[in-house]
Amino acid sequence: QVHLVESGGGLVQAGASLRLSCEASGDTFTYYTMAWFRQVPGKAREFVATIRWSGGYTTYADSVRGRSTISKDTAKKMVYLQMNNLNSEDTAVYYCAADRRLAVAPRWDPDDYDYWGQGTQVTVSS
What residues does 7 pair with on adjacent strands? Predict the structure, then answer.
């Protein structure tokens, strides 16, 4: 059974940086797409970034492109989200997700993802 555990959230000031981590276990993840989503109360879960386990191809939401980097450590089965120049609109619960199907095109719909972590809260104070 795939298990995802996020860490690294917290309270930071606007303009600061934060690195979120996702520890994955339970599979080899060879054909998986890993992703970060975020959600604020009362709103739908929002795509942030994806990375393919094989090859490392990445995609980003417009809202974070240029100031965020998704990466992975295959040996450690870790996925990271480095976020820089944070602002109040980045405040949300951030979730790590895994899509086990081999994908030709990146998937940005949370319904396409099979496994989810419990989430980690990021709060940016202005």
Answer: 21
**Which H or E element spans position 126?**
none
- Between CA 86 and CA 80 the distance in angstroms is 16
DSSP letter, residue 63:
T
pLDDT in tens, the chain (126 residues): 999 999 999 999 999 999 999 999 999 898 899 999 999 999 999 999 999 998 889 999 999 999 999 999 999 999 999 999 999 999 999 999 999 988 778 889 999 999 999 999 999 998
Residue 111 backbone dihedrals phi, psi, to 5 degrees: -65, -15
Q: What are the residues facing 80 on neighbouring strands?
A: 21, 71
> How would you class 68 by CB atoms within 10 Å of its CB: exposed for 0-12, middle for 13-18, buried for 19 or more?
buried
The token pair that represents 21 in the structure block: 């981590």
Tell me, what DSSP letter sits at residue 92? E
Longest dimension (CA), the chain: 41
